[in-house]
Design goal:
Strand content: 5-15%
Helix content: 40-55%
Number of helices: 15
Largest sheet: 3 strands, antiparallel
Radius of gyration: 25 Å
Number of strands: 12
Structural class: mainly alpha
Distance between the termini: 43 Å
Oligomer: single chain
Strand order of the largest sheet: 2-1-8
Length: 326
């Protein structure tokens, strides 16, 4: 995941630092708009535009910081805001998008409680789907260009995350260089739209691939002038490799940040809890009465899960018996 400590260190926020007075600053014609219209317009601004607007003067900063949805984002999920601004996805996400995602709790794929935010589509995802679902495996811009025959103009219009240096994947791999990533599904659809159809896209990619291989083989036949050791063999198509490493693939974690769930009605925040009984059952290789130990739950959801988890029931009964004895 994106390291929250690194975000706090490298991307400080200035929210709440308004200054002595804003009475000498105005927003021109924007000040003539009714407050509800002004809020609705600002909520639709992407974060890059919103950040530029906040930097106009103190009045603009005060207006933005006073919007309820924006205030909630800063209060309960400041690291999500830092991640949006730091990874370059800011031009494609708005405050409304992020606020809706924070108020949701369901994984977009399985419907279980999701403790993570997939930045490329601003969607909730649980850990199980994150490491196993093909839709949460982004691809580099270079791979997208090769796989779907995209030109630079089309590629530059896709929502893109530039990864931050850090440690990623379950193998704790260290990445110091930034990698440009796009959502694979969005990139594929862009390729279909660009070429006109799936067949046209696949034919173009096949022809281009054939030309690259033919050029490589032609250079091999030229002999001493092009030593084989100096020739670079064309890599396999990125879409031909079905095995992606799952939880060991660092790309899966470079565009993901952990976020809480905000309850709009009560204003409370839940980060989710996991089941120690399921984890223990996994260590003991016990399957009966145990769900996936990597799942997380809300507090109410965990109480429902407790009725299904045999190991948790045994532990609870032992704890109750101990309390009764003492």
């Amino acid at each position: 995941m994106i390291d929250p400590d690194a975000l706090q260190c490298n991307c400080p926020l200035d929210n709440g630092r308004i200054g002595k007075s804003d009475s000498c600053f105005t927003l021109g014609s924007i000040d003539t708009l009714p407050p509800e219209i002004c809020i609705a317009v600002i909520l639709e601004l992407d974060f890059r535009t919103l950040t530029d607007f906040r930097s106009v003067n103190r009045r603009a900063k005060l207006v933005v910081d006073s919007i309820p949805q924006y205030k909630k984002i800063v209060a309960v999920a400041p690291n999500a805001l830092r991640a949006v601004l730091s990874t370059g996805i800011a031009p494609y996400l708005s405050s409304r998008n992020l606020y809706i995602a924070l108020c949701d709790q369901a994984c977009i794929q399985c419907g279980n409680f999701a403790a993570f935010l997939y930045l490329l589509t601003c969607s909730r995802v649980c850990f199980v789907c994150l490491i196993e679902g093909c839709q949460f495996l982004p691809m580099t811009t270079t791979s997208a260009k090769e796989a779907y025959g995209l030109n630079n103009k089309t590629l530059s219009a896709l929502p893109t995350v530039r990864s931050l240096p850090g440690t990623y994947s379950q193998m704790q791999r260290v990445w110091r260089k930034r990698v440009a990533l796009v959502d694979s599904k969005v990139a594929r659809q862009a390729g279909i739209d660009f070429h006109g159809s799936i067949d046209a896209m696949e034919q173009y990619v096949s022809r281009r691939r054939a030309k690259i291989i033919a050029s490589y083989e032609n250079r091999l036949r030229q002999g001493p002038n092009n030593p084989v050791a100096k020739l670079r063999k064309p890599p396999c198509p990125p879409y031909a490799n079905e095995f992606d490493g799952k939880g060991c693939n660092p790309y899966r974690f470079m565009s993901v940040i952990r976020v809480p769930r905000l309850d709009q009605s009560t204003g409370t925040v839940e980060w989710g809890v996991s089941c120690a009984g399921c984890r223990k059952g996994n260590q003991l290789n016990r399957v009966y009465g145990r769900l996936d130990w990597r799942r997380m739950y809300t507090e109410s959801g965990y109480l429902d899960h407790l009725e299904e988890c045999e190991i948790s029931q045994i532990a609870w009964e032992s704890f109750s018996a101990y309390n009764a004895a003492t």
